[in-house]
Amino acid sequence: MDPILTIWWLGDGKPGHANQALGLVEAIARLHPCAIHELSLAGKPGLLSRLGAALRASAGLPKPDLIVAAGHATHPALLWLARRHRVPSIVLMRPSLPLSWFDLCLAPAHDFIQAPAVANVLTTNGALNRVVAKAATPRHGGLLLVGGPSATHDWDAERLLDALASISGGGGPWRLTDSRRTPPGFLAQMRERLPAVTICPHVETPRDWLPTCLAEAAEVWVTEDSVSMVYEALSSGARVGLLPVPRSKQDTRVLRGLGHLVDAGFVTPYERWLQTRTLTAPPEPLQEAARCARAVLAKLFPALPPS
After folding, report:
1. What average pLDDT does this structure show over 245-263?
2. Which of 125, 205, 210, 253 has most Cβ atoms within 10 angstroms of its Cβ?
3. pTM for the model
4. Could you give the CA distance from residue 232 to residue 136 in angstroms, rounded to a whole number?
């Protein structure tokens, strides 16, 4: 029997960061037997309180073989625990601390102006996530994923509601969920304007809700400010459209990344959809978590039998 890898992952309580960490560790577990333990640092405001929380959360757990973390607040505890137990550390997203302090950094390519030529950095096409494409699963209906104002985008509720009305007018059934950034009152506007769309507020959905729905949906529409959800949708193998929201910045690395997805035929902008009323199927599902999991095992655990 293959030896079981014990993996600890540190979370700061933010769903997006948990999604990235779980995306990686679950992908590793699909390749090799693993025991996975969460160490939550949520709600701890300072460095010492987070280190204390990490110590208490890890007490009594089996010694780790690997520690993974996402979110800047988790980085000092990640480094401290990795050195304490003399095991590799993996940081997700570009850290504010020096890259050389971590054994491996997995970060979206848009986090860097130019990919660093160092052995411990692996750039990814978007943030990692938990979504797995299931080719044999019958798909039906659609999913609408709504974000909100961000560093790169403003908000135009009426324009967005008009687009959602056009999209959900045919076929179905349709489900919609929001995010932490969605302005208060938007879901009420949705219920009044589009009563046939099932509203699923993100605060009422369990952790596995979105990956499950993405695996079932034939098409997914995402507001273009929600970059992480765009990549989650593409990981599912569904046809993906970009919902219109006004841009407050016209040229950023994140927006250039979206432009590359459009040019490569992975996503269809709403304005282009209006011309044909069809979404282009992506060339292939993005399976970045699986690719990174294989790289982690090859780089950090080369003695393990190949999966």
Report:
1. 86
2. 210
3. 0.86
4. 18
